[in-house]
Amino acid sequence: MRQYQVQLLERMQAARTNSGARVNQLGVLIGAERFLLDLTQAGEIVPIPPVTVVPLTQPWYLGLANIRGNLVGLIDFARFQGGAETVTGPDSRIVTLATHLGFNCGLLVARVYGLRHAGDMEVVGDRLRDTDANEWIPLDLAALVTDARFLHVGF
């Protein structure tokens, strides 16, 4: 598992520094939906750490976790969107937001699919369809951190 994470990190860093024609994004499963995260907006991918629940917060706000010495708010984005809670398992991870977004936050993902090339996908409405007919929803994390509802985790 550690080797997989190191390889994924190396590929993500190579994609960030390579300004070629392909647009690389990180594919993740949140709830029952597949999402694409822009690599410039995604931070680290880490196993789910112990979570401290914060009272009087929204059901989608899972609590706080210590990730490499930083307190990070953890969000179940599926519940934020009004869906069922994300089921966790051995493949579940936290994807933190990039530091430049100025928000110590991480999204709970049921699974990380790895790098996807959005340029190779077909646009279908507001989604992208890959060659295996999987539909992906682009998720703009920079826009998410400006959403008023996202910014108010308390009741």
Automatic annotation (TrEMBL):
Residues 22-155 form the CheW-like domain. SMART domains: CheW. GO terms for biological process: chemotaxis; signal transduction. Signal peptide: none annotated. GO terms for cellular component: cytosol. SUPFAM superfamilies: CheW-like (SSF50341). Pfam families: CheW. InterPro entries: CheW, CheW-like_dom_sf, CheW-lke_dom. This is Type IV pili signal transduction protein.
